[in-house]
């Protein structure tokens, strides 16, 4: 497999070569680009646009029991100069009930479950969150409310939370109780059976009415406007920010931002994943562009838009694809393409033992180094653009700061699996024309 990415840091820093596999050899093809030909720069409005999303039920163990967590977070903060934002949520948050009377007040973690339809309980949880968390950005009112046909996904989550060899009927932690039994494989979803639906079909219109009502109720309960991250739909489709924003009206004052969930592949059930497809730059571009109407709808409402949950494949990722250096390179390409589209930040979703997680109790995944690479590259960057090349598999990202380009990221998405006739192809040589005279270069490889 041929995997290559370079980070060229202009005058302020140095030249960082991340040559994961392979090296430039005589006879390689040349890729030409001109240093002064850019696409229109797109503003980056977030000081550290790469964030992390921790699965709700896994959050306590991630922060307390997983020994890698502290150092991994410290590294990302050092790379950026700003700590990564952390979103706590996921399908398990819609199985939780807040208990204000539970002990361990110093270790309690709180979230909001709109699906159960209990505004009073959610209001108590929201009030506790606002009181305890001083750097709170926003509250999400439930998770993926357009997901009404996800039995296979929820079975996977159930088996993760309640292994078949353990007779668990109640999982209680940090003020949250999750209930299940060994015979129940279908957990509640957003449909007519959800308490918030009141026995009626769950539709985009029903959800919009519910979101608007809850936005006002929760905001008034905590005494704050602009505290809700609305939407959080799984992929654009019937449920969309475009439709929701059109229904907001005066409730838009309670919305801090909009969010959506973005996964290019599925690892659920018998689904097949492909690392070659994941890394294909043209497919990354096409996939991200599907979200343009969502971004435009949020911008029209003058609100930020985030990929509040994302990774290589749903259902925790694929063990053959997600924990690879190829997936690490995909994450870099996906991150930068998202920013080019106008997405304000990307939260990569992590679970304790999912293949797509950046780290767990026993190891740090190659994908963590992709996140570190992106974070380092984006430090103090205020605009991003691209430079055209003569090879569509090679993309060059120009990163701007202080009204000039301060870094280039050169990514080659060519994929070689070791089975093609003729052996491994020679790597391409990227030749940059009109490089500024004051560039300082040094080498580093891994």
Briefly summarize what is shown:
It contains 11 helices and 20 strands. It has helices spanning 59-64, 68-80, 119-132, 151-161, 204-222, 241-248, 275-279, 281-289, 292-300, 325-341, 366-377, and strands at residues 4-9, 15-18, 30-34, 42-43, 50-55, 86-89, 97-98, 139-140, 170-173, 176-179, 228-234, 255-262, 265-266, 305-310, 313-314, 345-350, 383-387, 394-401, 404-412, 429-433. The strands form 5 sheets. A 7-stranded parallel β-sheet has the order 6-5-16-14-12-11-8.
Defining traits:
446 residues, globular, 2 domains, seven-stranded parallel beta sheet, signal, 11 helices, single chain, six-stranded antiparallel beta sheet, TIM Barrel, Beta-glucuronidase C-terminal domain-containing protein, GH, alpha/beta, disordered C terminus
Explained architecture:
- With 446 residues, the chain is α/β, with parallel strands linked by helices.
- 28% of the residues lie in helices and 22% in strands.
- The protein has a seven-stranded parallel beta sheet with strand order 6-5-16-14-12-11-8.
- The chain has helices spanning 59-64, 68-80, 119-132, 151-161, 204-222, 241-248, 275-279, 281-289, 292-300, 325-341, 366-377, and strands spanning 4-9, 15-18, 30-34, 42-43, 50-55, 86-89, 97-98, 139-140, 170-173, 176-179, 228-234, 255-262, 265-266, 305-310, 313-314, 345-350, 383-387, 394-401, 404-412, 429-433.
- It contains eleven helices and 20 strands.
- Mean pLDDT is 76; it is low at 9-27, 104-110, 149-188 and 439-446.
- This is Beta-glucuronidase C-terminal domain-containing protein.
- Keywords: Signal.
- Residues 1-23 form the signal peptide.
